[in-house]
Design brief:
- This protein is an alpha+beta fold.
- The chain folds into 2 domains: about 160 residues, 2-Layer Sandwich (Chloramphenicol Acetyltransferase), CATH 3.30.559.10; about 240 residues, Chloramphenicol Acetyltransferase (2-Layer Sandwich), CATH 3.30.559.30.
- The chain is about 35% helix and about 25% strand.
């Protein structure tokens, strides 16, 4: 297949990368028990080959066209470390692959960190790669065919990853609504919103170990919450966003009732017909604004978010971001200038990953995945941080519990403030059980 062209969103994320703000996802997995180093290396190489772009680099052709090309060097092996504090390094796609795995192994514990460049995939795609890696490891350990239990992938489908569905009949039925959306977007662009910190000075590099804070909401609380949400005809994602707005408003004690909080919400545009596609960036972004005074009525706020996201998806307004990126990509200079802009983008970001391991096919014990002689105890995914966006969140359900992980830019936002924000958020999430 190689070489093949970058899509516009891949170029955007490729340009939106700097030493100060590497555009990478980090995923951290903690296992109890032992993992075999040799089998781990072999299964990793096979997973990279399965998703084909794990050994690809970005190459600029004559005329300014960027494309993916296969490296001449062999696949990059896992890096084994002597400490659980697994350091990252910026991945330069011009010279090296956008996948990096690091491991810390002992006889009864293992920590695995996966680092993936955002130009190659989104968070769900990165977790799909890890899921395949774990299935291959378990197959090799137990003497099964390495691809047993895995859905066949068709690399040719990567040539369709630029499609966003705007030529479908369904989109044409919503076309008359797009001017309404553009009118709303114009007002949206003029609105000022709160930021949590100013960006660090240029040249100030991030901490070598990604700084994280986390919050876990127990299984019983989530079960009770889901029953309440069904009664209010809302989703867990709606409630997560509503309580995040409340936490932001309460954390900033001196904020005005008119203070506006803006949250970036990634939305997957994957379709059932794309299940055979290797990992790719199939996510768009929407931004939701709420005022501090709107956070006084939690359930009203939740229903309002549910209604707005329903309109965005139903009218396919989530495609506007991708269409704007595609328009700017006619000029690499224009696209790069937009991607590298140091203007504020939002107050924070929340990516809800749902239950990424629920259909892995791996054996479980008390809801926890078994991989050979090891058991997956916890998983975290860290979205990138950006200028004026010093903390970003991911939410993931595992073993019935909900874990929210914060990626904290401690150059400008202290860890205590991040933990305080999570504590307030946790109280709001649990408040339903106390009512």
């Amino acid at each position: 297949m190689f070489p093949f062209r970058m899509t516009s969103i891949e170029k955007y994320h490729f340009f939106d990368d700097s030493p100060e703000f590497p555009n990478h996802f980090f995923a951290r997995f903690v296992f109890s028990g032992s993992l075999s180093r040799g089998v781990l290396e072999e299964s990793y190489r096979l997973a990279v080959m399965r998703h084909i772009r794990g050994n690809a680099i970005a190459r600029k052709k004559f005329g300014g066209r960027w494309e993916w090309a296969e490296r001449d060097e062999p696949l990059t092996d896992i890096e084994f470390c002597e400490s659980e504090e697994l350091e990252f390094r910026r991945l330069d796609l011009r010279t090296e692959p956008g996948y990096l795995a690091k491991c810390f192994l002992t006889n009864d514990r293992a920590v695995v960190m996966m680092q993936v460049h955002h130009a190659l995939t989104d968070g769900l795609g990165g977790l799909a790669f890890v899921r395949d890696w774990l299935v291959m490891y378990d197959n090799l350990v137990n003497g099964r065919a390495v691809d047993e239990g895995l859905r066949p992938l068709n690399p040719e489908m990567l040539l369709q990853r630029q499609r966003i569905g705007v030529w479908s009949w369904y989109y044409f039925k919503q076309l008359w609504r797009q001017p309404i959306a553009l009118f709303g977007a114009a007002k949206f662009l003029m609105r000022r919103f709160e930021t949590l910190a100013n960006p660090p000075p240029l040249g100030t590099l991030p901490n070598l170990v990604p700084q994280t804070a986390s919050l876990t909401v127990e299984r019983e609380t989530i079960q009770h919450l889901k029953r309440e949400l069904a009664r209010h005809k809302a989703t867990l994602n709606d409630f997560l966003l509503a309580t995040l707005y409340v936490a932001l408003s309460k954390q900033e004690l001196e904020s005005s009732p008119k203070a506006c909080w803006r949250v970036i919400v990634p939305i997957s545009i994957r379709e059932r017909s794309e299940q055979a596609m290797p990992t790719a960036n199939r996510t768009t972004l929407v931004q939701l604004d709420r005022l501090s005074r709107e956070t006084n009525d939690l359930w009203g706020l939740t229903r309002g978010i549910h209604f707005e996201l329903g309109i965005i998806r139903g009218w396919m307004l989530d495609r506007i971001f991708l269409m704007a990126i595609r328009l700017m990509s006619v000029s690499n200079t224009w696209l790069a200038a937009n991607a590298r802009s140091r203007k504020p983008r939002a107050t924070t970001l929340l990516t809800n990953l749902g239950k990424p391991f629920v259909r892995s096919g791996l054996p479980t014990s008390d809801g926890k995945i078994q991989v050979g002689d090891a058991q997956l105890e916890s998983a975290d995914l860290l979205p990138p941080v950006r200028d004026y966006l010093p903390i970003s969140f991911s939410a993931m359900q595992y073993c019935g519990a909900l874990k929210i992980t914060a990626h904290v830019d401690t150059r400008v936002f202290d860890f205590a403030s991040a933990q305080r924000l999570l504590d307030i958020w946790g109280r709001e999430l649990r408040s339903v059980c106390e009512a």
